[in-house]
From TrEMBL:
<keyword id="KW-0812">Transmembrane</keyword>
<dbReference type="GO" id="GO:0022857">
    <property type="term" value="F:transmembrane transporter activity"/>
</dbReference>
<feature type="transmembrane region" description="Helical">
    <location>
        <begin position="101"/>
        <end position="126"/>
    </location>
</feature>
<dbReference type="GO" id="GO:0033214">
    <property type="term" value="P:siderophore-iron import into cell"/>
</dbReference>
<feature type="transmembrane region" description="Helical">
    <location>
        <begin position="254"/>
        <end position="273"/>
    </location>
</feature>
<dbReference type="Pfam" id="PF01032">
    <property type="entry name" value="FecCD"/>
</dbReference>
<dbReference type="InterPro" id="IPR037294">
    <property type="entry name" value="ABC_BtuC-like"/>
</dbReference>
<keyword id="KW-0813">Transport</keyword>
<dbReference type="GO" id="GO:0005886">
    <property type="term" value="C:plasma membrane"/>
</dbReference>
<keyword id="KW-1133">Transmembrane helix</keyword>
<feature type="transmembrane region" description="Helical">
    <location>
        <begin position="210"/>
        <end position="233"/>
    </location>
</feature>
<feature type="transmembrane region" description="Helical">
    <location>
        <begin position="20"/>
        <end position="43"/>
    </location>
</feature>
<keyword id="KW-0472">Membrane</keyword>
<comment type="similarity">
    <text>Belongs to the binding-protein-dependent transport system permease family. FecCD subfamily.</text>
</comment>
<feature type="transmembrane region" description="Helical">
    <location>
        <begin position="73"/>
        <end position="94"/>
    </location>
</feature>
<protein>
    <submittedName>
        <fullName>FecCD transport family</fullName>
    </submittedName>
</protein>
<feature type="transmembrane region" description="Helical">
    <location>
        <begin position="132"/>
        <end position="153"/>
    </location>
</feature>
Length: 347
């Protein structure tokens, strides 16, 4: 009886995806509140509300909330949303459920330039490389690969060929990075490895003011592709018969996905599994392949999961902070394995 009732409730929720999207939004708000209030210094919800509305008088609470935790939490939200949508776009484009945002080599390009900065004498004799230079190096490397992939995408008709070329770009960059790591000094190598594991630690408002608007524009552009991507799910011939310009759609999809990945990688480093697992979670929960629903759902789920994983990375072994990719991989790998074994919906 109870099982039949739950089954009926589940079907009702799936027929009304707006209910589920509202629930995802509520979970996102809860995850944000937890990210801000929990930590080595616990902040009561009442104090949080007072600070946010400009009524708090406690200087420590203001500093912790406004200067440390809030920008970090917002960065995790926008970063997770960007990676989730990037992964969704590429999974649809390549018709491959195990494609993630890094498959085209964007993060490998970022990693290569960061390695050149951190592991060689390119730091110009400085005792340490500033976070700004690391972010700039990652952005340059990521955008260089984006430009290369876009040039290739305009000449290659096969999505599979583009996928293989992206993988080869990643292997080439990784080979150079491995050589640099072999000859690097121990301290530089340690700092570089920490960067490759990803982290939203140390975000300030200046970085959020870049990440949030740029990410918002790209996410909106991704949503505008939902209708032609829905047509593409039924095959290229059908999509063309519906007036979809396949070449233009291919270039737009690759560009938006790569730009989203480049943006997050530049500021936070590579963050594993969010772009792979979040679209699968959205499909499983909503039971649909309609991208007008999946894109908002992936945004909300990716943001929520990333915010919670960032919180766990921060508080699990406090004061030692874990790399966020350690948490996302520990949680994401079992989820992806389970979904691939019991997948109920098609791409």
């Amino acid at each position: 009886m109870v099982q039949r009732g739950l089954s009926g409730f589940s079907r009702k929720m799936r027929r009304n995806p707006s209910y589920l999207l509202s629930l995802f939004g509520l979970l996102l708000v809860i995850s944000l509140v937890l990210s801000i209030t929990l930590g080595s210094v616990s902040i009561p919800l009442k104090d949080l509300c007072q600070v946010l509305f400009g009524q708090g008088n406690h200087a420590v609470d203001k500093t912790v909330i406004l200067d440390i935790r809030l920008p970090r939490a917002l960065a995790a939200v926008f970063g997770g949303a960007a990676l989730a949508v990037s992964g969704l776009l590429l999974q649809i484009f390549f018709r491959n459920p195990i494609v993630d945002p890094y498959v085209l080599g964007v993060s490998s390009g970022a990693t290569l330039v960061v390695a050149l900065l951190m592991l060689t004498g390119f730091s110009l004799g400085m005792g340490s490389v500033s976070p700004f230079l690391v972010t700039l190096a990652a952005l340059i490397g990521a955008l260089a690969v984006v430009a290369l992939v876009m040039a290739i995408a305009q000449r290659v008709k096969s999505a599979v060929t583009l996928l293989v070329i992206g993988l080869m770009i990643g292997y080439l960059c990784s080979a150079v990075v491995n050589i640099l790591m072999t000859f690097a000094e121990k301290e530089n190598l340690h700092n570089f490895i920490l960067w490759t594991l990803g982290s939203f630690s140390g975000f300030d408002w200046g970085e959020v003011e870049i990440l949030a608007p740029a990410g918002g524009v790209l996410l909106a552009a991704a949503y505008l592709l939902s209708k032609p991507l829905n047509a593409l799910l039924l095959g290229e011939d059908y999509a063309q018969s519906m007036g979809v310009n396949i070449k233009k759609l291919r270039i737009s999809t690759v560009l938006i996905s790569s730009a989203l990945t480049a943006l997050v990688t530049a500021f936070a480093g590579p963050v594993a599994f969010i772009g792979l697992a979040s679209p699968h979670l959205a499909r499983l929960i909503l039971g649909t392949s309609d991208n007008k629903i999946l894109i908002p759902a992936s945004i909300l789920l990716g943001a929520t999961v990333t915010a919670l994983c960032d919180l766990l990375a921060r508080i699990s072994f406090s004061p030692i902070e874990l790399p966020i990719s350690a948490i996302t991989s520990l949680l994401g790998a079992p989820i992806v394995i389970s979904l691939l074994m019991k997948r109920r919906t098609s791409l």
